[in-house]
Amino acid sequence: MISNTEGTFFLTGKDFVNAGKASSRLKKVLENLGLPPGIIRRASIAAFEAEMNTSIYAVAGIMHYYITPETIRVEIKDMGPGIEDIALALTEGYSTAPDYIREMGFGSGMGLPNIKKNTDSLTITSAVGEGTTLDFVINLTGTSEGAEHDTERNC
Amino acid sequence: MILSEIADNLSLEIKTEGVDLGREVTGGYVSDLISDVIGNAHEGFIWVTFQVHLNIVAAASLKNLAGIILVRNRIPDEETLKRASEEKIPIMVTPLPAFEVVGRLYDLGLRCQ
After folding, report:
1. Which of A17, A44, A114 faces B35 most closely, judged by CB atoms?
2. B113, A155: Cβ pair inside 8 Å?
3. Domains plus CATH for chain B?
4. β-strand pairing of A131-139 with A121-127
């Protein structure tokens, strides 16, 4: 049985050397809890994409995780420009990333869709000029562990 | 097919130390977009890319990929190689362009499925 575990990581915007470290540390927390590999993979992917979004767009942010026997819940709150149209931002291929970000292989408009695909629920709240908060949940009970919602192999 | 056979066949230069070249490669993917790889590559795949910054290691590690091939003699950042060794992700370099690399991998029997 997993005991309740929680923690917080601080995220720095525009820092592409350290970007990815928080989700990497979250992955280690999940591994230490002995969670199934499929669950760890889904949670790590969602956390990584959210962390990269904070790096790309925001000045700073916070990642907070809360794990219970039933769910992994991760909240990523950033001090960024905010998202004007959330439905549009969730559209695969839509991105507002600047060119230098695209040159690094980000900003393809697939980050938020990847988060959605790998989580059981995703809530985005945003205020333009203030920031964005992402809240996602992965269920630990009653689901097949590694199943992405989009089960079709795209290649 | 294992990674070392692919490395020999394509004369790849191995840039990371202490990594597992005996790993079975289950397929391949080519992309320079990190989220595309995270979304669509699969465990055990080899990844062909032009990107060299350290988040390629994070992406490969998240998807448990077998290795990364950098095309056109792209030089990986020092930090990338350090992280790749820590995460045990083999990074290999070739002077060939991506088109040629993928064609040869396909000839060797690798598929994206």
Report:
1. A114
2. yes
3. 3-107 (3.40.1390.20)
4. antiparallel
